[in-house]
Design brief:
Chain A is mainly α. Chain A folds into two domains: 1-48, Arc Repressor Mutant, subunit A, CATH 1.10.10.60; 51-192, Tetracycline Repressor, domain 2, CATH 1.10.357.10. In chain A, 77% of the residues lie in helices and 0% in strands. Chain A has nine helices and no strands. Chains in contact: A-B, C-D. At the A-B interface, helix 7, helix 8 and helix 9 of A face helix 7, helix 8 and helix 9 of B. Chain B binds a DNA duplex through helix 1, helix 2 and helix 3.
Amino acid sequence: MTSKKKEKYQLIVEAALKVIAEHGYHNAQVSRIAKEAGVADGTIYLYFKNKEDILISVFREKLGELIGRFHSSISESPTAEEAIRRMCRIHYSELENNVPLAYVTQIELRQSNLELRHAIGDVVKTYIHLIEQVLRRGVEEGSFRPDLDVKLTRLLLFGAMDEAVTSWLISGRKYSLSDQVEGTVEFFLRGLKA
Amino acid sequence: MTSKKKEKYQLIVEAALKVIAEHGYHNAQVSRIAKEAGVADGTIYLYFKNKEDILISVFREKLGELIGRFHSSISESPTAEEAIRRMCRIHYSELENNVPLAYVTQIELRQSNLELRHAIGDVVKTYIHLIEQVLRRGVEEGSFRPDLDVKLTRLLLFGAMDEAVTSWLISGRKYSLSDQVEGTVEFFLRGLKA
Amino acid sequence: MTSKKKEKYQLIVEAALKVIAEHGYHNAQVSRIAKEAGVADGTIYLYFKNKEDILISVFREKLGELIGRFHSSISESPTAEEAIRRMCRIHYSELENNVPLAYVTQIELRQSNLELRHAIGDVVKTYIHLIEQVLRRGVEEGSFRPDLDVKLTRLLLFGAMDEAVTSWLISGRKYSLSDQVEGTVEFFLRGLKA
Amino acid sequence: MTSKKKEKYQLIVEAALKVIAEHGYHNAQVSRIAKEAGVADGTIYLYFKNKEDILISVFREKLGELIGRFHSSISESPTAEEAIRRMCRIHYSELENNVPLAYVTQIELRQSNLELRHAIGDVVKTYIHLIEQVLRRGVEEGSFRPDLDVKLTRLLLFGAMDEAVTSWLISGRKYSLSDQVEGTVEFFLRGLKA
DNA sequence: TATGAATGAGCGTTCATTCAT
DNA sequence: AATGAATGAACGCTCATTCAT
């Protein structure tokens, strides 16, 4: 039963992602998500508190996976410098290879109300903490500037990458996002290095 | 008469800014804006095509002023390096000194629909072009790296500052944003310098 | 379930007829119709596309019944002359015996917009085609003039009866409409007979 | 001054006719009529009580002229039969030669509310009385049936002609309305003659 | 007389959520 | 657990009319 419950929960999350990606946030009615998931409207409310809860779950589930990948990749990196490089590579390539997810997280879900944005903030915070860890490691290793303001810099890195992805999407994905990894990392490392 | 017309237009724009800042984008009903401006609902439509037109105007008017200040300040800078410094200082201090504006531009208006977001995008684009100009100037001056990818870097700079401001707001403005200018500029210039 | 759905559909159509008859076309708000039908406003839209769709349905449903009665009565008539007589009798008596329907079809629904009027026109067209058939039959039977312009005459008959009904309504129904059948038919037949 | 007043009054009536003919009843806003007439919105209310008053005036003024023409033509007719013929000829030809007027009176103004329809009814009543006079004359002359129900028949004649005109308009005026005079009169006279 | 900026009442429709089955 | 018919609150916009100038 628990696994079945999980299954339907996942079914609805996937359906929500697909519907938002296809029709946009403002056309992602609960009934549409239910239809896409192959369940009745009312069934949604057996698994989610309300509509917002679905959207938060989409973000948490999908970005959770992404952040998991960061974690393992980063912890395996021999140096902080390499960790920064891998982080950016994963950030760009994962979103480039999953356009619907990119579209939903970068564009659509940002049109949501404050409560959802706070929830999204929590997920993003996890990622930002991860960046911070890498920065601290770099300082400790001696490869990054000892006077680095890690609290500030973690935001600058995240904001920079985030904007790079959003611009790539809005431009219509006319160029390769992965090709921007080198330029981005070069800029970051010069700013970070001791 | 023209000045009176201008007055009422401005009155409504200011009212909209205030209402969105106080009640949030999704609670900024036209009737509420009208009430705040001290005019009848119908009067709004003598000055604006529709609700969206009000919001776009808020953005354009308010950010227009801001970008104007960037322009003059940057063109007067003796060096590209100094231009970057001034740009970041204005970006942070202007928003820090106008919290409602910061709140509306960073948080509330991003919840809007696609058409408004496109309009906002146009204003932001102006700013990003300005950043690009500074970068080119720095390369020409020889103070910035000759191999700098200006198309990419302008986004990284904008995204980094944008995120710094948003985080400061969401944190509840518990610290000084202006105090972050030095750290930000230090990071940028190391990444840019030849 | 199907019958229940039918029931609610009919409930709303009847409510609309009653509301329009009582309050007039311009005061027949959707919320009023919903209230009269004993359903929520939103329920209306489970059965009708929009307000206009309700009104068209009122016309179609109600006049559809009427025209059905014409059909059977006319086809059973032994002669075209008798068909004309029955047609007029049904036309007058049915509307005389259903004043709300008469009021709505003759007065209120004619105040509607073009799209609805077109829809109404389609229903009326059916009736006019029926008249035409009777006229052709009379010509074939030899009882009506062989040189009769059926395309024109069908309009004259319909217009004449329509005006007789409307005048009777506007006069406040101070006289019997059924009593006018003889005079009307007499006039028609003299105009038609060979 | 009186003539000037009359002038502006006429100006507005003509403008209203034109606007309704061009844009339809539901798009004939007061401000549009004012613009067409070359006066300010407020000026309208110096000459008319309200919007309805304008529309009633359009009908009264324009149909008044028409009925005046009926009057003279009919009174000059040597026989009642000829009067019927002339009446129908004028009815059809005047409207055929003034399509905007036909369109406004037959289609657009009928979408109006009850009060206006009552006012229109008054104008039409004048016409119907005229028809009645002709019928009485025919009976007195002995050319029309002595048992003719004039109260009823006047409606039948008016309704028949009215429908003929409306159908011609709705059909897109693909045929000549004047060509229908003979068929119409033939039908009428057979119905009327002793 | 004439203006036209300002008014504000009025309404069709959507959709997240509920609940009887 | 699952259904889906029913709910009803919420809101942008139009336009006839007014009135200060």
